[in-house]
Amino acid sequence: MTTPTSTRPLALVTGASSGIGYELAAQFVEHGFDLVIAAEDDGIDLAAQKLRRDGGPQIWSVRVDLAREQGVTELVAAVTATGRPLDALALNAGRGAGGAFVGGTDLADELEIVDLNVRSTVHLAKKLLPGMVERGTGRVLFTSSIASTMPGPFQAVYNASKSFVQSFAEALRNELKDTGVTVTSLMPGPTDTEFFDRADMEDTRVGSGKKDDPAKVAAQGFEAMMRGDQTITAGSLMNKVQTAAGKIIPDKLKSEQHRKMAEPGSGS
After folding, report:
1. pTM of the complete model beyond 0.90
2. Which residues are known catalytic residues?
3. Dihedral, CA of residue 253, residue 258, residue 263 and residue 267, to nearest 10
C-alpha cells in the first residue's frame, strides 16, 4: 500500500461512499489530493472507482464500521500503511435515527449513533491529529450540523451527538491555534442524501421537504477548511438565518419548532 513516490498531499474522508462525504472526496480529487476514503458499505469501492482518473490521484478505499473500535483501528492502520503524512482530515461519518426516544427508537440504534458520531470522531482525532501537530501543518474538517444548535425532539440523540461534535471541534481549534493545524466545523442543514431514508424520517416535514445539494455543501465546506475558517453554515440562506436566530431564540422554542419538523407523520 505504501506509495512514497507521490508528491500529492494526502487526505482522509470518512463516510465517503455517498452524500456529503463522497462530494468532499470529489473536492479533494479536484484539488490534487491523494485520498484514503472509508465507509461501512460496499459502495465505498464504487466511490473509489468513480473518483479515479487516468494520471490522477491515488485512492485507497477502506471498508470499515467506524461505530466499532476495531473499525477505527483498522482505518488508522490503513492510513499509516500508506507511509505518507496526512495533510487533511475530513471526519464526516455519521448517522441518525428518527422517532420518539421512549417507545419509538431502538436502544441499539441510539447507541450506534453515539459510537459513530461521537466515539469514532474522538478516537480518530486522537490518533491522527498528533502527526499533524508534530509536523506543524494540517487541515481538519468536522461535519457537524445546524442540528447542533438546538434540542432535537424525535431526533434527540442525533442532535445531542452533533452538539458534541460542534463543541469538540471548537475546543480543538482553540487548543491548536498556534500549531499550524486548523480546525473547521461544517454545519449543513437538510441535505439531499440517504440520511433521512436511513433514519426512517421520510414521513417527516424535514425529511419530505426541500433539501440542499450535497455537492454545494461539500464545496463550501472544502473551501472553508482550506481557508482555515472556524465554522461554515453551508447550503441555503435559510440555514444561515436559522443558525443566527438560534443564538437568541430560547431552547424551549427551538425544541417546539424542531418537533414540528421531525415528529413522525408531520410530512403529511
Report:
1. yes
2. 158
3. 120
